[in-house]
Amino acid sequence: MGTTKSSIRRTCCAAAAAAVLLSPEVSRADEGGVSFWLPGQYASLAATPQVPGWAMGAVYYHSNVSASGNVAAARQITVGRIPPTVNVNLNLSLSGQADLVVLSPTYTFASPVLGGKVGMIVSPKAIKDDAKGLATRESSGKVLNAVAENLPWMVGGSADLAGSDRTRLKFDGAGDFQGGSYGGRNLHFGVREHGMAAALNGMAVSKIRAFGGTFFNFSDYMRPSIRLAALMELPTIYVFTHDSIGLGEDGPTHQPIEQLASLRAMPGLMLIRPADANEVVEAWKVIMQLQHEPAAIVLSRQAVPTFDRSKYGAAAGVAKGAYILAGRAEGKPEVILMATGTEVWLCVSAYEQLKTEGIKARVVSMPSWNLFEHQSEDYKAQVLPPDVKARVAVEQASTFGWSQYVGPTGAVIGMRRFGASAPIKDLQKKFGFTTENVVAAARKAIGK
Predict the structure, then answer these.
(1) Which residue has the higher pLDDT, 52 or 203?
(2) CATH classification code of 318-445
(3) DSSP strand pairing (66-67 vs 92-93)
């Protein structure tokens, strides 16, 4: 299963993407460090005291790694417990080839790829903006394949919906796990979401990085096992697609309404609903660094524009749960427009129209309430200034929970009933998910 350097550096969505890879064992964040290991033979060597802040720990590299630079020469080394404030470069080499590796958001290493079997491959280049864009399930499928190809202990599948939720691993050698052939990476769970979720937890206990996919509405069948994963602090990954009324003609039996609010209420579950392809990449970066929390990535069936990140805020803000996507340059806003997922582009469209009217608006993308609530009060106040009371939230789901962000005088454009079976444009117009309606709500919020 050797992986060539060129295949490791492939692109996502016709542009360079990021694939974040971690070993099965990483120490808890509150222990102040990262433990990183590979299957196989291990040896350890204390890091030299030349690097400030280093202490004995456990970051293991494979036996054919030769170390240089600030680390004593050795075939295998142990480095660890680097304080989050320390930013260090390790100059490791393998046959003269090294790729950029990021072990956490706070420190950076340069490390060999080891045949694509270890490390994190990160490209700083954003996915190119595209007005037509693509469904977030599509970009997620590409990133998932990029991650799994380089992480041999990442295994998963779908509840008979791999073609729709884009969870099938398609790279050479992925194969199917089945009778007489147990080396495959794709599991076929059949139409049994609850059984799939339980099996994923069992694999996670065994240190396999397990993922499973289905339509978001069917997450209800999985809820007992999702809750157990949160209780057991298992890094199980759930890929949920068809995330809203945006799936159209499939109708209310398949259109999730209350699921977002329900899973947001579950302690210990990391839920992320990205707005475009670049947010998808950043969401997977967050997910692959979780070692004691299950994660749910919630994705669209329909295409959404890929934002021009030279014009709008960097997608790296996903790591903070919410960030200013548009309107930072205007200073203090008159009105804040906030949304998750596919509705973010509606807020951006409304922002552009309001700007032509001389109204200072701000767009805040909020892919993860959980992450946002873990930020400092200062950061939260920078994104959502407390003295700006005119606020509009937009989400094609239950309005439950948004009051904590819009306040008593804000407005929420959301779902207060089940969906309907109709073309997506008809549904969006019927339920108020249009640029015109968002603009009208913004004007009303500021009294214009």
Answers:
(1) 203
(2) 3.40.50.920
(3) antiparallel
| Dist CA 314 CA 320 (whole Å) | 12
d(CA 49, CA 23): 26
Strand 303-306 and strand 130-135: the pairing is: antiparallel
DSSP helix/strand/coil, 176: strand
Q: Which tokens in the block code for residue 52?
A: 């400030």
Q: What share of the chain is helix, strand, coil (3-state, %, to 5)?
A: 30, 20, 50
Strands 107-111 and 99-104 turn out to be antiparallel
pLDDT of residue 141: 93
Read off the tokens for 11: 């692109």
pTM score, whole prediction: 0.76
Where is pLDDT greater, at 183 or 21? 183
Is 25 noted as a catalytic residue in this protein? Answer: no
Sequence letter at residue 378: D
How many H-runs (helices) and E-runs (strands) does the chain carry? Answer: 13, 19
What is the SS3 assignment for 204? helix
| Collapsed DSSP state (helix, strand, coil) of residue 221 | helix
pLDDT class for 444, splitting at 50, 70, 90? very high
Residue 300 has φ and ψ, to the nearest 5°, of: -95, 155
In this structure, of 129-133, 378-382, 408-412, the range with the lowest mean pLDDT score is 129-133
CATH number of the 132-303 domain: 3.40.50.970
Asked whether 447 and 361 are in contact (CB, 8 A), the reply is no
CA gap 444, 448 in Å, rounded: 6
What is the Cα–Cα distance from 287 to 108, expressed in whole angstroms?
18
CB 291 within 8 A of CB 28: yes
**249 band by pLDDT with thresholds 50, 70 and 90:** confident
Q: Of 25, 31, 138, 193, which is the active-site residue?
A: 193
State the Cα–Cα distance between residues 392 and 288, nearest whole angstrom: 32
Question: Domain boundaries in the chain?
Answer: 23-119, 132-303, 318-445
Instruction: State the angle between helix axes of 193-205 and 219-232 in degrees (0 to 180), rounded to the nearest 10.
Output: 20
Contact (CB, 8 A) for 243 and 166: no
Query: Quick one: DSSP state of residue 299?
Result: -
